[in-house]
Every structure is written in structure tokens, then in C-alpha cells.
Design goal:
Helices cover 34% and strands 16% of the residues. The protein contains seven helices and nine strands; from the N terminus they run ααααβαβββαβββαββ. 34% of the residues are buried.
Length: 235
């Protein structure tokens, strides 16, 4: 299994400093987990999303080992990214949103997540909204919606895309999370249910066909789903 060669010589100090500066955005359990597992990336490319975001924000991951860059490439290979894009569930740190905005030469990238650490950005076409998105959120002039391991927002993205007849691409996570002592379906059942719903939305709303891919290079075992229409992709 490949591993991330963390570039920082003082990675523990760097991560600890980041967490101290942003501790109000993490629970005590999350802070304990991150400090106890800060070297996870030295043993696997596929790490906790909380830790991955911090690694990326601190510039600790080489581009060839960075799953955000891999997902961006997959998106560019299948869609025109030079248009208005929404990311649903962008995380505390909008690592993917930043990449999409920097690569986007014509449109805006709007990131929704109620847990965003900040809503300010030095990237002119990146808009950060510290709020949840629903399938009924009113968005004008959007051509693509993306989700990188958005957990419970996966179904929101699928339904929003169908309702508004726009393209979508979603990288799955395990689909199992805890919220008020309620657990979602088991991982395999959840994935099958989401894929079924995506196929239904694609079919009923003339979004082409549903495609399934994988980011295996990054040791990611979960599928990436997206719709595919017959049109030219602008690089």
C-alpha cells in the first residue's frame, strides 16, 4: 500500500498549532482523535476526512498522492468545469472547492457546508456559504453539482441534480455515520440505495446514463458516480 510522505518535518507541531487556532470548530472527541492519529497518512493514502483536510491545508501532501487532485482530474475528464458549479458538503476546509475555483476560468464555485471554518476567500470566484443545502435550495444558473464524500448530503445532491436537470459527480464515503444515536443503513445497502436513486433520477430527468468509477490510486475503496451525456468536455 502506498503512503503519503508528509512533507513537514514538524508535522505534529503544525497540526497542533492549526487545531489550537481553530479548536472551536471541532468537538473534543475530534480534537483528541486528530492529535492521536496525526501520522495516519504515513501508513495509508486513504485517511480520515478531517485529517486529510488539515494535511492538505498545511501543504503536507504531494500532488501525485492527493485524492482531491485525483477527483478534480476525474471531474475535468467528464465535465466542462468552466461554468457555475456547486459543491455540497465541502467540509470545514473547502479543499476541493479551492481547486475547482482555481481551475475554473469562466464561472463561480459555491461551497455549502454548515461546518465551514470561514466564509471568506482570497479566490475571487469561490463563494463559501456556511449553511446546509437541500434538494429545494434555490440556485440560479448552475450547471454542475459535486460532492466529495458528502455523507448524508449524497442523496441531496442526487435529488437536486434530478430536480434541476443539471450534471453531478459524487465520490462516496462509507455512508455510515452517527447523528443523535441514529445510524444509517449498513455500508453496502446504503451505497446500493444511493446508486439506485441516482439511476432513477438520471433516467427520469434525461441526464444521460449513470457511470461508476473508482479512485483506486489513492486506496479509496468507494465508488464515484456521475451522469454522462453525449457532449464535448471542455478542458
Amino acid at each position: 500500500m502506498s503512503e503519503i510522505n508528509l512533507k513537514s518535518e514538524n508535522k505534529y507541531d503544525d497540526i497542533k498549532k492549526f487545531l489550537l487556532e481553530h479548536k472551536e470548530y471541532y468537538t473534543e472527541e475530534e480534537l483528541s482523535f486528530l492529535l492521536a492519529n496525526y501520522t495516519w497518512g504515513e501508513h495509508s493514502l486513504f485517511v480520515s476526512d478531517l485529517l486529510r483536510q488539515i494535511y492538505d491545508e498545511l501543504g503536507m501532501i504531494q500532488k501525485e498522492n492527493n485524492i482531491y487532485d485525483g477527483f478534480l482530474t476525474l471531474t475535468q475528464n467528464n465535465f466542462d468545469i468552466h461554468q457555475n458549479i456547486i459543491e455540497c458538503g465541502g467540509g470545514r476546509i473547502p479543499c476541493l472547492g479551492k481547486r475547482l475555483a482555481l481551475a475554473n476560468k469562466k464561472g463561480t464555485v459555491t461551497v455549502y457546508d454548515p461546518k465551514l471554518i470561514t466564509t471568506t476567500s482570497n479566490i475571487p470566484n469561490l463563494i463559501l456559504k456556511k449553511e446546509s443545502m437541500t434538494k429545494d435550495t434555490v440556485v440560479k444558473n448552475c450547471q454542475l453539482i459535486v460532492g466529495f464524500m458528502p455523507n448524508e448530503a449524497t442523496e441531496t445532491i442526487i435529488q437536486f441534480a434530478g430536480k434541476n436537470n443539471i450534471d453531478f459527480i459524487i465520490a462516496f464515503s462509507n455512508g455510515v455515520w452517527e447523528e443523535d444515536t441514529y445510524f444509517e443503513d449498513c455500508e453496502e445497502e446504503w451505497q446500493l440505495r444511493m446508486i439506485y436513486e441516482a439511476r432513477r433520477q438520471v433516467r427520469e430527468n434525461n441526464l444521460g446514463v449513470l457511470e461508476i468509477s473508482y479512485l483506486e490510486k489513492y486506496n479509496d475503496p468507494y465508488p464515484v458516480i456521475y451522469n454522462k451525456r453525449n457532449k464535448t468536455v471542455a478542458k
